[in-house]
Amino acid sequence: SLLRYTESGLNPYLSVRFESQFIDQTDPRKDFTLNPLQFRESVGISRTLVKNDEREWIVRLGFALNQSLRDFYIYDGTADPIVDMVESETATSGGIELIFDYTSQYFDDRVDYVGQLRLYQPLIDSNKSDIEDLDAATLIAAGLDEDLADYTTELDIDFKNTFTTSITSALNVEVVVHWVYDKYDSTVPVLVDDEGVIENPEAAQIAIRKKGQLKQTMSIGLAHRF
Predict the structure, then answer these.
(1) H or E element in which residue 173 lies
(2) Pair 114, 152: CB distance under 8 Å
(3) What is the pLDDT of residues 100-140, one digit of tens each?
């Protein structure tokens, strides 16, 4: 949800977002569940660079806060694992966000394009200090990079492109190309026991995504415009 005041050249805005997933890759059972729960609040200023009948381009600059709540699982590694849910863990981060929203029409208004480029530079992350307390040998023994703490404050990039066209008055085709670069998933804190051993190395390994993630989808559906 985005609330934006548009009566001035520089428009203040307030945004809130909730995001989750139905299947958590850290859950060995792969059950249907909402995990993790992610919340984001941001505030800042925006400006409309272009606005006419064919296109609109808006840029936003602000400060964002992120909170997450994630459940972790343990199992004995057998063919029929015994799974227990450990206590829920929270993580927070905050930083500067820069967002470009662009909409346009092409081919005599037959194709609608909606694009959003989001750049987020974390300045603080609750995971970083916890990881910095671990020595390199502990991280390497768990199969993790010794400079893992620096991953938590790397620049995040989220670039989504949506193309929509109408085959008939009621039949639409939509193509989405979505690329995300998040070097370390900040919703996954590194859990350490009293003896200094990392309890969730598998989850931390999954959270490292050096090459980014790409999703491409095409959908066909019925639509009616009122």
Answers:
(1) strand 171-181
(2) no
(3) 999 999 888 889 999 999 999 999 999 898 888 888 989 99
CA distance 86 to 25: 16
CA 103, CA 51: separation in Å to the nearest integer?
Answer: 9
Q: In angstroms, how far is CA 93 from the centroid of its own chain?
A: 12
How confident is the model at residue 74, as a pLDDT?
Answer: 64
* Cα–Cα distance for residue pair 52/59, rounded to 1 Å: 16
**What is the separation, in whole angstroms, between the first and last Cα of the chain?**
22
Model confidence over 187-204: pLDDT tens digits? Answer: 888 888 878 788 888 888
Q: Whole-model pTM?
A: 0.85
Q: Is 204 helix (H, G, I), strand (E, B) or coil?
A: helix
How many CB atoms neighbour CB 103 within 10 A? 17
Contact predicate 144/208, CB 8 Å:
yes
Pick from 137, 161, 146: nearest CA to 214: 161
